[in-house]
Amino acid sequence: MSLLVYLLRSSRWILPVAFVASLISGFGNAGLIALINQALGASNDRLAELGWRFLALGVVVLLTRALSQTLFMYLGQRAKAQLRMQTIEHIGTAAYPHLERQGGSSALTVLTQDLDTIVVFFIGLPTLAMQGAVIAGCLVYLAYLSWTILLLALVTIGLAALGFRLAHTRAMKDLRASRRREDDLVRHFRALFDGAKELKLHRARKQAFIDETLAPNVEAVRVQRTRGYVLYAAAASWGNLILFAFIGVTLFVLARLTHVDAHVMSGYAMVFLYMIMPIEGLLSAIPSLGSAKVAFEHIEKVNADMPRELAPDVAPVRSFQSIELEHVTHQYFRDNESEPFTLGPLDLTFAPGEVVFLIGGNGSGKTTLAKLLVGLYTPESGRILLNGEPIDDAQRDRYRHHFSAVFSDFFLFDSLFGMTVHDIDARAQQLLDDLQLTHKVSVRDGVFSTLGLSQGQRKRVALLVAYLEDRPFYVFDEWAADQDPLFKDVFYRRLLPDLKARGKTVLVISHDDRYFALADRSIKLDDGQIVANAQHESGRAAIAHSVSPLQPKASI
Predict the structure, then answer these.
(1) 8 Å CB contact between 331 and 342
(2) Alpha-carbon dihedral sign for residues 269, 271, 274, 275
């Protein structure tokens, strides 16, 4: 969809009214020039009439100019909000693998820089419309004065437009190229913060990152942007040169050949001198149109690269009878490998109220299996069944609501979004006390007082959030890896039994071999294949005699 089509669809009646007001203002400006030219040779009796016309037309110009600018400002901010929400909705409804592949850089530039470019375009629209109307009105007045000179004026404008078109094409090419580099720059800028510790600890790495990655991209953007805008400036200068050449030819050549009346010639000179500023304004506003077009194309591309998942409204999920992975496989590329890694085929069954440990070496596919299980990834082959029914695209969103997970790369929101738990502050506060975090953080109106915590403490808060979600299936990906020995013991010997006692299924990805015997069952992965899936009778007995640390009033 083009930018113009989007504007027409989204603005309804506002855009036409704003354009009409701009055109009236522009033609009114041309009318003022015509009145001034008439006043120069008018009698005293005629001057009073022309003065009242001048006053009335001036008021119309002022009011329509203010109206058009107000409407275009309103449209700009509304278009920014609409496009921003469209992008947010695309991100929110996109499949997780698409988000993972695309990363956040492109979407962040859409939500900030590209949308601001659209707003700048709207700010420049009144200028484009009004200055265009001024030029059109002046040409109409020139036709009234002399058709011969008008034809020469049209030829002149055609030459100026041709030169501008050539420069504009090359300028747009540079602007598009610089826009693509901006995405890479945003990603690299984020690395300055995300990798701050590593850069501070390695001066040579920091300098190499700045000199070999950041500096070349910054310089390339500078060169391409500068060249693009210089071409626009050159096009504007070309237009002015042609315009002055036309004035010279008209005054010093055509005037002698056609014997045009002196009053007509002075009118022509005045009109053309007045047209210089509108033409410059029009040409200077056109780059914003080009930048807005590039920005809109980028917004459309980013949104198109994030196709929406089917996400029908779902009722709260309370339980399940069985979850099965039947001949499930998934392929993906691991770091520093040219061939895809294959996980599976996997054949697994999970029942309510069991604690399962998923073990194996690094890179064996444990986290990927967990993401397949919870519905973040879609199997390339095989199927996942819920209560014996296969999960398809229409059911995947509802299926995911069976799970609450704390992955190793978890993200912690500062608010308990979407929670409908009764007396949530009191319950969250009790859990904070059980997790020994009340001296660090509190909850008020569902909002955490701070998230400025250590990684281990943040994982405890993430655990609290998962607890409050009260889903039938819990997944913990190396949760205890950042905990001290005390909380490791609490997690394995008290938290897991508490969840089991409440009928929850728990999948724990772990390297803590001293606790493996506590599981009902352990699944071992090696190079993407299940090499063991064993029941632990000792684990059942150990868990049955464990004690939960959670107070009864904190139970969901």
Answers:
(1) yes
(2) negative
- Please identify, among 304, 338, 363, the residue that sits at the C-terminal boundary of a domain: 304
- Residues paired with 385 in a beta bridge: 324, 390
Closest CA to 453 of 465, 444, 440: 440
Name the residue with tokens 């080009």: 290
- Which parts of 31-91 are beta strand (E)? none
| CATH number where 533 lies | 3.40.50.300
Q: Domain of 455?
A: 323-554
- ∠ at Cα 323 (319, 324), nearest 5°? 170
pLDDT tens profile 32-81: 877 887 787 777 778 888 888 889 998 998 898 888 888 887 887 787 78
Contact 95, 309 (CB under 8 A): yes
Distance CA 135, CA 29 (A): 9
Which ranges of 342-470 does DSSP label H, i.e. alpha helix? 366-373, 396-400, 424-434, 455-469
CATH number of the domain that residue 189 is part of: 1.20.1560.10
CA nearest to 224, candidates 125, 294, 163, 162: 294
Residues 266 and 168 in one domain: yes
Token digits of residue 177? 């190229």
Q: Which residues contact 32 (CB under 8 A, 6 or more apart)?
A: 54, 57, 58, 61
- Is 282 within a domain? yes
Q: Percentage of the chain with pLDDT > 90?
A: 23
Q: Do the beta carbons of residue 118 and residue 266 sit within 8 Å? A: no
Q: Which of 283, 277, 173 lies closest to 232 in space, CA to CA?
A: 283
CA atoms within 13 A on the CB side of 59: 5
pTM (two decimals)? 0.70
Determine the Cα–Cα distance for residues 109 and 74; give it in Å rounded to an integer: 22
Angle value at C-alpha 508, between 345 and 370, nearest 5 degrees: 40
**Are 55 and 111 found together in one domain?**
yes
CA angle 315, 318, 320 (to 5 degrees): 110
